[in-house]
Design brief:
Largest sheet: none
Order of helices and strands: HHHH
Number of strands: 0
Strand content: under 5%
Structural class: mainly alpha
Helix content: over 70%
Radius of gyration: 13 Å
Shape: globular
Oligomer: single chain
């Protein structure tokens, strides 16, 4: 329950959220594009970040995978 309070876990959750929203935008583009405003706009914004910064997001995912390996 308190895992989200750790900074590394928080970064992992944010990365997974961005990657998931980007995938959903690729599969269902009309669903995210019509919900650009309001609370559901967060999903559209995360998908936009994942699309525009995809090399950096993927490097962060690899770095997170390496850092979580024990």
């Amino acid at each position: 329950m308190f895992g989200i309070l750790k900074f590394q876990t928080f970064l992992l959750v944010v990365l997974l959220f961005i990657c998931s929203c980007t995938y959903l935008h690729g599969v269902f583009p009309a669903w995210l594009d019509r919900n650009k405003a309001g609370p559901l706009g967060t999903f559209w914004r995360a998908a936009r970040i994942g699309e525009r910064l995809s090399p950096y997001v993927s490097l962060c995912c690899v770095a997170m995978a390496v850092s979580l390996q024990d």
